């Protein structure tokens, strides 16, 4: 029997496990573990891939065109491709009631970060004000994670928003559009900074040099479809390394229903069912660690209480960053060419200083490079042929700023369980207050559009879209860390109050949600907890 | 020179009416010949490559937009023969005509000279010899391009074909419509003289010229085996179709051309025909006799052979894989949609992918939507109108979904994807001009679409309400 049983192989699970293994502990990791399909033609770039595949239409559009992005009121200008289908596949047992909240959950090896875009930003000391530890406690673990996964970055104007303490790799060379915007920012820095706008290089978990068996970014333009070189970090890469450790046992194919408890609410293992069907199994360990991702961990926690007779537990404080997508056109780049074979994701990041660090806005600015074209083309206001021609002329000029606002724990935003008559439990996610941050959201949109205007771009107001709550995929806050001895909270070391031997090490434990990509901090925090356990 | 004794050949305009036949003839020669020949196809739009299938050994395709940018350094091999067929034709404004036909030819001649080409063959037009070229920007552009070629400082031959006929010939199709149309008219006096040449004869002459000894810098006019008046030509066309003879009335062209010319200065080339295009009805289109042409093409086809009903153009897109009539209907509509979006017939594999992916489109019970699909799947013109209206009235309807699927398939398909998923680079000024033209075209099409479909929309709404009542 392993000492630690970790549920979930996502960003927190694998780094928690890795730190424990480095400390000589035994770890068993259990999850559903849908597998990533092998990347075809690993050396081919995006355009060449279409020429080389036997069935490129199926690879890019899915069986029977299921992944074609059709016009719809809420259609985004992109879709997740079939090759990422494994990330969002749900076992039959999963049932979520969504009220004002549209979540993504993952049961894949590596979890949701299998589909992330790699943004990695350290939190400022003040942003940890509500956490039961300070920045000094977290910094070494940012460094540990950065060394493990490889994060590119430079100390620039964004340093004041995100400290630059971890060892960062040299950034990738910028694409021409991003470089153009950056140069323009350099020339107009004074006025833009005076308006609170700051621009710099994205910090991204992508390799600019080889690391172990992972190869540096080859500029294939296949980031969205799955980097075939392992240059863009995903947690399944760490998992693949861990399985060779003799102290590590990986148990995929199991859907964990709840924590198994003994007298005194002592966690002694988990109850799981095989994904393909079959009887419940019990897996035992000295300590149980929930790292299934904030929402799945919340469900496990609630179902554990339900098994103890408490079906009425409601967890307030569900959080997700407000996410706004602001497309823009850089008028000076109309008619230019676009290199499709280049790093596909954002190379620039931005921040808006609001004068109150709690309300600062963070974002990423992406120039359009390789992409599925049809979702963008049908969003233009012309007939499709004209739209296609307009798009091709303007392609080099297009980009999008994705901005996020911070979120706080509020009593209206609740996770709870709904137990049906047949005993089946469904997770209810109810985001009751989706409006109190709307004025701040509109202000952030206006300031971003104004800054883009100063950078020579036009960001039509009608094109900016406030995405449904749940879109940022930064979920947190249901079982928060804190010093106060309250029910349904955890201590700074991850221990869940009211239980013995039960830990929460993922986003469910975050008491506040800064307007930043969370994953780097999630990994650092899981590493922190694992390194401090006795 | 890497293969065989024949000089390398560089061809522009391979996707055009003459170019397609020329490529087919070259391909046949390549299959028959034991000595391979280097052939370079300079193509603006890689989508056209799909229609060529796999290229023979020693052939290559190089992307080159003559109107936009200079050529890649290795596009033209040393000592090659350049066959310049690419041209902008039809209803285009003078700026585009000039950008492609004059500036583009200039770029190509400079590149050919710098690369050390052995012979530059410029396929011009008999229109360059017209005395009355008023409003005919195409003829002006061709003449200007001829001067550029002659002054470029490299061995050249300028070839001016007369009207080129054959399956798929735009000019023949236009005349056939007049000949077989309901109105017994002939544009102009009908007494201008014509000498149509069959496309395969022109191709034979061009290939013979390409293999001929070093040129003398000649300008040659190439025509078919028979001359006649336009009035006689239309009569021959009726006879070839088995239609009864008739005596057509003359339609005076001077006022029509005047009105069109005036309109074009205001709204551009948006009417179905331009003043310039009517120039063929007021000028003789016959080739001046030339000894070189007699050697290159000793036995051009007579008119009767040219007008013999051609086989229907083969369209490979109706895939063999379409197993039942529903699939065939989908394959047929995809052919229309693909031509509408990309101006190119899709490959069989893309058609198969469209049919296989079509379940994701879903069904629509909406009457207007069904009508829009019905109109759109008849012709590219109908598709343009229906799509324009659908964008306004049914932006998420079935027609739009079918068109989005078409685009999604085409942008994913081998080779052709580049015509959809890449940028179309040009100078900023050209891009802005193109965007303005696209905007104007869109506004005009949308206005037409509203005029056509708004009454249908109203009728569909009334019918829908009637059904609900019933």
The average pLDDT score of chain B comes to 83
Shape-level CATH architecture of the largest domain in chain B? 3-Layer(aba) Sandwich
Overall SS class of chain A:
alpha+beta
Average pLDDT number of chain A:
95
Main sheet: strands, sense, barrel of chain B? 7 strands, parallel
Q: Overall 3D geometry of chain A?
A: globular
**How many domains of chain B, as an integer?**
2
How much of the sequence of chain B is in beta strands?
Answer: 5-15%
The CATH topology annotation of the largest domain in chain B reads as Rossmann fold
Q: What's the CATH first level of the largest domain in chain B?
A: Alpha Beta
Notes on the structure:
The complex is a heterodimer of chains A (534) and B (470). Chain A has helices spanning 11-22, 46-52, 56-61, 85-88, 135-149, 176-187, 189-194, 235-242, 294-307, 374-377, 384-394, 438-454, 519-532, and strands at residues 4-7, 27-30, 96-99, 197-201, 248-251, 254-262, 266-274, 281-284, 287-290, 314-316, 319-320, 322-330, 348-352, 361-367, 398-405, 413-419, 425-431, 457-458, 465-466, 475-476, 502-504. Chain A is globular and about 70 Å long. In chain A, helix 1 (11-22) packs parallel to helix 8 (235-242), helix 1 runs parallel beside helix 13 and helix 5 crosses helix 13. In chain A, strand 7 (266-274) and strand 8 (281-284) form a beta hairpin. With 534 residues, chain A is of the alpha+beta class. Chain B has 470 residues and is α/β, with parallel strands linked by helices. Chain B folds into two domains: 9-307, 3-Layer(aba) Sandwich (Rossmann fold); 318-470, no CATH class. Chain B is 49% helix and 10% strand. In chain B, strands 3-2-1-4-5-6-11 form a seven-stranded parallel β-sheet, with helices on both faces. In chain B, strands 7-10 form a two-stranded parallel ribbon. In chain B, strands 8-13 form a two-stranded parallel sheet. In chain B, helix 2 links the parallel strand 2 (39-43) and strand 3. In chain B, helix 3 packs parallel to helix 4 (137-150), helix 11 crosses helix 14 (380-393) and helix 12 packs across helix 15. The model of chain B is unreliable at 310-323 (pLDDT under 50). At the A-B interface, helix 2, helix 3 and helix 11 of A face helix 12, helix 14, helix 15, helix 16 and helix 17 of B.
């Amino acid at each position: 029997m392993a000492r630690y049983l970790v549920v979930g192989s996502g960003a927190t699970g694998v780094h928690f496990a890795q730190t424990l293994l480095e400390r000589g502990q035994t770890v068993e990791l259990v999850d559903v573990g849908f597998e990533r399909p092998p990347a075809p033609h690993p050396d081919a770039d995006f355009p060449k891939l279409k020429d080389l595949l036997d069935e490129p239409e199926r690879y890019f559009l899915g069986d029977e065109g299921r992944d074609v992005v059709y016009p719809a009121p809420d259609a985004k200008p992109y879709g997740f491709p079939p090759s990422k289908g494994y990330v969002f596949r749900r076992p039959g047992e999963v049932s979520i009631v969504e009220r004002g909240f549209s979540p993504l959950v993952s049961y894949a090896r590596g979890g949701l970060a299998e589909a992330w875009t790699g943004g990695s930003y350290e939190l400022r000391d003040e942003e940890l004000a509500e956490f039961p530890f300070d920045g000094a406690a977290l910094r070494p673990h940012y460094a540990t994670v950065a060394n493990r996964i490889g994060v590119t970055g430079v100390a620039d104007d964004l340093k004041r928003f995100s400290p630059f303490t971890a060892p960062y790799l040299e950034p990738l060379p910028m694409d021409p559009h991003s470089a153009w915007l950056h140069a323009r920012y350099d020339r107009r820095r004074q006025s833009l900074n005076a308006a609170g706008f700051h621009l710099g290089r994205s910090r991204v978990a992508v390799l600019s040099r080889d690391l172990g068996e992972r190869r540096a970014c080859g500029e294939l333009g296949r980031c969205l479809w799955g980097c075939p070189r392992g240059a863009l970090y995903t947690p399944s890469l760490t998992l693949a390394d861990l399985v060779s450790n003799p102290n590590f046992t990986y148990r995929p194919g199991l859907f964990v229903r709840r924590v198994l408890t003994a007298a005194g609410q002592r966690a002694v293992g988990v109850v799981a069912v095989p994904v393909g069907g079959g009887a419940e199994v019990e897996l035992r360990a000295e300590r149980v660690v929930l790292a299934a991702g904030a929402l799945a961990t919340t469900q496990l926690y609630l179902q554990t209480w339900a098994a103890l007779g408490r079906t009425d537990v409601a967890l307030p404080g569900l959080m997700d960053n407000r996410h706004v997508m602001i497309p823009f056109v850089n008028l000076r780049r109309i008619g230019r060419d676009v290199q499709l074979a280049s790093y596909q994701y954002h190379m620039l990041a931005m921040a808006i200083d609001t004068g109150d660090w709690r309300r600062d806005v963070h974002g990423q600015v992406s120039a359009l490079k390789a992409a599925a074209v049809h979702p963008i083309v049908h969003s233009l206001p012309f007939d499709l042929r004209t739209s296609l021609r307009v798009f091709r002329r303007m392609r080099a000029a297009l980009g999008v700023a994705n901005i996020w606002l911070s979120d706080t724990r509020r009593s209206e935003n609740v996770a709870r369980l709904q137990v049906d008559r047949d005993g089946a439990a469904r997770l209810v996610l109810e985001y009751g207050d989706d409006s109190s941050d709307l004025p701040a959201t509109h202000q952030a949109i206006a300031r971003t559009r104004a800054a883009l205007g100063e950078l020579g771009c036009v960001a039509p107001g009608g094109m900016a879209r406030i995405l449904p709550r749940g879109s940022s995929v930064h979920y947190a806050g249901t079982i928060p860390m804190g010093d106060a001895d309250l029910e349904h909270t955890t201590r700074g070391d991850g221990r869940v109050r009211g239980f013995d031997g039960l830990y929460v090490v993922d986003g469910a434990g975050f008491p506040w949600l800064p307007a930043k990509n969370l994953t780097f901090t999630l990994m650092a925090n899981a590493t922190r907890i694992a390194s401090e356990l006795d | 020179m890497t293969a065989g004794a024949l000089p390398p050949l560089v061809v522009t305009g391979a996707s055009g009416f003459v170019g397609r036949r020329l490529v087919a003839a070259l391909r046949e020669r390549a299959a028959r010949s034991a000595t391979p020949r280097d052939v370079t196809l300079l193509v603006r739009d890689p989508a056209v490559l799909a229609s060529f299938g796999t290229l023979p050994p020693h052939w290559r395709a190089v992307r080159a937009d003559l109107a936009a940018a200079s050529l890649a350094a290795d596009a033209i091999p040393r000592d090659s023969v350049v066959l310049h067929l690419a041209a902008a034709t039809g209803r285009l404004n003078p700026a585009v005509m000039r950008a492609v036909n004059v500036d583009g030819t200039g770029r190509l001649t400079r590149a050919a000279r710098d690369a050390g080409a052995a012979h530059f063959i410029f396929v011009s037009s008999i229109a360059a010899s017209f005395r009355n070229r008023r409003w005919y920007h195409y003829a002006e552009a061709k003449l200007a391009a001829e001067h550029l070629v002659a002054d470029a400082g490299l061995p050249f031959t300028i070839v001016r074909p007369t009207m080129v006929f054959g399956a798929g010939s735009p000019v023949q199709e236009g005349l056939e419509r007049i000949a077989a149309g309901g109105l017994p008219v002939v544009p102009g006096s009908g007494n201008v003289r014509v000498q149509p040449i069959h496309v395969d004869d022109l191709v034979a002459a061009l290939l013979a010229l390409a293999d001929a000894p070093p040129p003398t810098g000649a300008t040659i006019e190439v025509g078919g085996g028979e001359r006649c008046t336009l009035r006689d030509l239309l009569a021959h066309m009726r006879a070839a179709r088995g239609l009864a003879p008739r005596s057509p009335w003359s339609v005076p062209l001077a006022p029509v051309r005047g009105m069109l010319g005036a309109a074009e200065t205001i709204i551009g080339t948006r009417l179905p025909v331009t003043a310039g295009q009517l120039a063929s009805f007021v000028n003789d289109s016959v080739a001046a006799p030339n000894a070189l042409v007699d050697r290159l093409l000793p036995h051009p086809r007579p008119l009767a052979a040219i007008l013999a009903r051609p086989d229907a153009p083969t369209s490979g897109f109706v895939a063999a894989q379409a197993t039942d009539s529903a699939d065939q209907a989908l394959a047929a509509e995809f052919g229309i949609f693909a031509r509408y979006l990309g101006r190119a017939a899709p490959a069989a594999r893309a058609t198969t992918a469209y049919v296989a992916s079509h379940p994701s489109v879903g069904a629509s019970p909406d009457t207007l939507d069904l009508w829009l699909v019905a109109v759109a799947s008849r012709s590219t013109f109908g598709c343009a109108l229906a799509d324009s209206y659908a964008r306004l009235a049914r932006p998420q309807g079935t027609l739009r979904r079918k068109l989005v699927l078409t685009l999604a398939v085409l942008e994913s398909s081998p080779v052709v994807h580049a015509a959809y998923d890449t940028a179309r680079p040009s100078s900023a000024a050209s891009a802005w001009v193109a965007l303005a033209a696209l905007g104007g075209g869109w506004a005009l099409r949308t206005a037409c679409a509203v005029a056509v479909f708004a009454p249908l929309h109203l009728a569909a709404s009334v019918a829908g309400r009637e059904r609900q009542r019933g």
